[in-house]
Amino acid sequence: MKRTWRFPFTKVQTACVVSGIVLYVALELFYAAGGQAVSEGDGLKRAGPGHGETTYNILVSGLDRENGNRKIPVRIPVRERQYEAEEAKELFQRIRPELIKQMLGENESLEEVRESLNLKNSLGDYGLRISWESDNPQVIDSFGIVHNEEIPEKGEQVWLRARVTDGRHEDQYEFKVTVYPASLTKEEKAAADFLLWMGQMDMKQQTEDRLLLPSVYEGNRLTYFKSEEEDYRILPVLGFLLAALLHVKEEFDRKSQAKIREQQLLFDYSEVVSKLVVYIGAGLTVRGAWERIAGSYKDAVKQGKRSIRPAYEEMVKTAGQISSGQSEGRAYSEFGRRCGLQAYIKLSALLEQSQKNGSRQLRPALELEMASAFEQRKNLAKKLGEEAGTKLLLPLFMMLGVVMVMIVVPAFLAFY
Questions:
Q1: Using a CB cutoff of 8 Å and minimum separation of 24, what contacts does 103-111 make?
Q2: Are 144 and 103 within 8 A, CB to CB?
Q3: Measuring CA to CA, which residue among 86, 76, 88, 92 is closest to residue 49?
Q4: pTM
Q5: pLDDT by residue (tens digit) across 356-398?
Q6: In 3D, which of 117, 162, 115, 163 has the Cα closest to residue 144?
Q7: What share of the chain is helix, strand, coil (3-state, %, to 5)?
Q8: How many CA atoms lie within 13 Å of 375's alpha carbon, on the beta-carbon side?
Q9: Is pLDDT above 70 for 13?
């Protein structure tokens, strides 16, 4: 039989492949013809101050004395741009308001600081580096962290000094900061005072093996409770969620088992029909062929030579019904109904019809059904193979993601 060859790509896939090839050829011809020439007036653009060195890959012709047209690849490093003296002076004069705005953090002004300051080591995109010093690190350290636990209500002044430089030019700024105690609610203030008093009690009892909790504080009797570290209100929600998930799992398992049973029935159908054709062709009656197939299956299962298959289990059940006195036609009809697939319903109809009209035309009909069954089994095997290939795509994509991370992350880290 002549086999027809089908093109493996769709039109869209073909267009993508052709576009990639065309672009590649166009770029190769473009750079082979000279590429994009860099004139002396264009130059190589520098990065802004503080943005580091930039490297350009350039092809230079004229370096080879013997072959002046030959292009030699050269990597040219270009240092970052630096400020001129007047430019730096003007910049230092106008960045003070921005520096104050950046360092405030969650505070309203430097005259009333209750939260930690935002003392960064750089400022915006100016490429300036900043170093900080404090004349009282116990209140504000060089990182901007405010320690105002023991600050009086009237506040305490601290001077901060900022040294700003671009590498060649530098300037210094001084800021007067007034630190106040943190804003506390009434409950937080009471807890803070009690904690301070408990700290004093702890110092007095430091030689003891445990801290004794006082029963009276400022004339009020105290009662202590251990706070609940875990919130158990989530447990009922988890119970409902687990019940819903179990229901979904049971439904999924039921559908999965039904699908597996259907696949096994379809796989065994061609084998069942072919055995019926062989036994009926050898002169056995339909009932004899049926009982012979069911008996052989039962013996094979007992001896451990064969696993349990739903089609043959239904045949064993049908053979038992016939042996107990049920009519063959009705037993075959119930067999097809229990299997539930169109192929088995058709087989049961053929067998039931043979009981009414005789078995003269049964064997040719079964031979046609056998040919159709083998074709159906081949298509099923092909479908399962395609599904298995599709299931392998997920681990393949996961492996690709891992490889991409292994390649990209070191490349990004190399810039820092």
A1: 103/144, 103/160, 103/175, 105/144, 110/175, 110/176, 110/177, 110/178, 111/178
A2: yes
A3: 88
A4: 0.41
A5: 777 677 878 877 877 777 777 777 777 777 776 677 777 888 8
A6: 117
A7: 50, 15, 35
A8: 7
A9: no
